Amino acid sequence: MCAINEAMVRLFSKSLSLTRFMKYYNHKKNFLAIPEDEFCSYETSTYVIQSAPYEYTSSYLAGSYKGPKAMIKASQFVELYDEELDMETYRKGGICTVQPMDFTNRVDDKAVKLIRKNTAQLLKDGKFPVTLGAEHTITYGTMQAIAEKYPDVCMLQIDAHSDLRESYNDNIYSHASVMKRVYDMGVPLTQVGIRAQCIEEAQLIKQSKDIHTFYAHQVRQNPKWMEEALKSLGKTVYISIDADGFDPSVVPAVGTAEPNGLFWNETLQFLKLVCEKKKVVGFDVVEIAPAKGSILSEYTMAKLIYRLIGYIAKGKNK
Asked: What is the pTM (predicted TM-score) of this model?
């Protein structure tokens, strides 16, 4: 192993013990830089982090393909002890990080099929899939595999955008159409934080009994929105979190930011409630587009991922 100079050790020792830093150096590609092999190997881990750095249809700021790697790198500075849950979550089942998917010469349907295949393998092996995406299109692949194993699954979507367009730029696999593809599968949708859509999306929501949308302005005005959103969900839930569902003051580095988003505490409170009352069978986090000179967005989402795994470990899935 390469020599580590004293300046580097002093820098990292502010947030990590020297022992953990040495392990981080050996496990630098793993989520959280988990120091013990028994809690990050595929064989012994319940939760598996898979990266899907697929970006092909971004319509505003590009760069989301860098998101999965950035979140994993940022996670290596998240404390292993969770002060809210009073535990080191990674010890409650283990968290493995597998190699990123390769989308060379794969776009649209071919990309979706690869994501579906990899997710299906995780499920077959009895793992809980946590998918870190680039653009939101990746959720279509994960949901195909999830719905095959859990036919009664419903979708909880945290997002600024409805993503219910039939197509966008003549592409039915666009990130702006991903929830229409999921809806076409017969999966009921509960959307939280929506604040940008076209009129056709709004009309579809009004017409459908299987789409329950809690707009951002309604969330601000309705103190019972969490209770109502929870009631709209079935027993089995898959969670898709688009980073732009958060307010830009919380997560600024996204492809298409929108004002009046969700804040940290209210989002975590709601997710905790979902995990306590429902069976969560997988989740993804998408659309982080890292900004040069800032780590706020990827670090915040890395902490969210770890906290959500903790909620699941303590919740109805136990």
From this structure: 0.90
